[in-house]
Amino acid sequence: VMDVPRAETRRYGVLDVVRESGNLVEARGLVEKPAPEEAPSTLSIIGRYILDPAVFVELDRQEAGAGGEIQLTDAMARTIGRLPFHGLRFTGRRFDCGSKAGFLEANIAFALERADLHEDMHDILTRYGAAAEQGQGAGG
């Protein structure tokens, strides 16, 4: 889990936190993509899960919702209260690959950190940056 600006809570599942101990948080509930004024916290669910088998039982019982999708967070929310539900605060660097810009940023950052791609990527970014400053597109 990770704190996000309150205005961004509408993009994530958000925990309703009971208590915190260091990087570990215990939740009493979660809300999927709440309006900022209705978010119980700014602690957003951003990562991977280790789930109790009971969550999968709930998934089996669940009807498809909007768009014909079955939401994992709905099944998780129904198990909270019956089972302990915890989150671990993420402290590393995170990219939001759910957006096109975030996906591109992740790939650029990855390329810049690789010795075999760094120089080429730096040259490409410099070229595109110069073109953008001159109000030109990628082709110059």
- Indicate the percent of residues in helices: 25-40%
**Alpha carbon gap, first and last residue:** 42 Å
Report the sheet with the most strands, covering strand number, pairing sense and barrel closure.
Answer: 5 strands, antiparallel
User: Radius of gyration, rounded?
Assistant: 20 Å
Average pLDDT: 91
Might you state the CATH topology name of the largest domain? Spore Coat Polysaccharide Biosynthesis Protein SpsA, Chain A
Q: How many strands appear in the DSSP assignment?
A: 5
Uncertain parts:
none
Overall number of domains: 2
Spatial order of the strands in the main sheet?
A: 1-4-2-3-5
Return the structural class.
alpha+beta
Task: Return the CATH class of the largest domain.
Answer: Alpha Beta
* Element order: H for helix, E for strand: EEEEHHEHH
Architecture overview:
There is one protein chain. Helix content is about 35%, strand content about 20%. The protein is an alpha+beta fold and about 140 residues long. It has two domains: about 1-90, Alpha-Beta Complex (Spore Coat Polysaccharide Biosynthesis Protein SpsA, Chain A), CATH 3.90.550.10; about 100-135, no CATH class. A five-stranded antiparallel sheet has the order 1-4-2-3-5. Strand 2 and strand 3 form a beta hairpin.
In short:
The protein is of the alpha+beta class. It has helices spanning 53-61, 72-79, 100-113, 118-133, and strands spanning 2-3, 13-21, 24-32, 43-45, 86-88.
Keywords:
Spore Coat Polysaccharide Biosynthesis Protein SpsA, Chain A; 4 helices; about 140 residues; alpha+beta; about 20% strand; five-stranded antiparallel sheet
